[in-house]
Design brief:
The chain is mostly helical. Helices cover 67% and strands 0% of the residues.
Length: 377
Amino acid sequence: REAVRILPKPTFASQEETMHGFKSYFPSSLYTPTAASAVVAAKAGAAPAAGFAPSMTFQHPAAGFMAASKQEYGMDYFLKGALAGGICCSVTHGALTPVDVVKTRIQLEPTKYTGMMQGFNKVIAEEGAGALLTGLGPTAFGYFVQGWFKFGGVEYFKIQAANSMTPQQTWDNRNSIYLGASAAAEFIADIFLCPLEATRIRLVSNPTYSSSMIGAMTKMAGEEGVISAFYSGFGPILAKQVPYTMAKFAVQGIAAEKIYESIGKTPKTCTQSENVSVSLMSGVIAGVTAAIISHPADTLLSKINKAGAGGSGGMLSRLGNIAAETGLWKLCTQGLPARCVMIGTLTAGQFGIFDIVMNAVGASKFHFHDPSKPDDH
């Protein structure tokens, strides 16, 4: 007769051990012990651990989204968002370098370059097609760095804001969260972008200045000093980029919501290709809006980084001189059609590529959700 093997009676981990296990996967604010936990333990033959009382209830996360775990919206998620942002900004800005070269020439020399097509033809005729790629190095690298901090920062700041509110407060204040998160992220990103943007503009305005990005930066620093060479345009770049980025993310968020409503779907119920299509369409709307809002500062930025522009005084004095010489109307309209084409295309591409990269690295993109519509989660 076979011997019957008697298995040992199962034991249950202490409350501390159990909660320690949960904490490695879930934020401490996500769950509290529930009555159901005590019932399960009692049926298994173990006494409920201290602190497991029937009066305890499930505690919903404070954020206005369904965070599956700390891992989903933790540092790993933010790094993936930063990487996707760096890639999408570098690729789109790099691809549109020829448009940016002509747009900058129109802003710097409007009497010589009178329009987009005329500008393209004139640059090619006088300098060759390769001149359209002037500044590609600092453009691609600079906007990778800027995109890393901008998109990664926006994801970080908006999720932190959502974590500090109730679900309904998060939904009601989503536009303010977009604006605040994008402003904070852009400010940080511009600290790193400004030197590279100054170098790009110097190379575009004077193609013979240097044959490389590093060579141009070294020469600029030696001739003018680090602050004067690289941060004379910091005020204009903030005035350009911060409103641009605020409009870009807020308008894209609103436009995407309206598109999803019009097709009767949510991001969760759409396929990946449908979500990318929504990002592209909403990105065009956001890009054109943002381009119009930020164009006067973009014109000032292009002009102040041209050697000798605005006189020899301080930054504010030079900006005032440039604004007075150019006039408000020209500040707002010089190169605007080209910039609308460029930024509309660029912004659509950025949001589309961002979604594609986030899916490729296995990150579930954060979306605001209306708590009154459970199916929206």
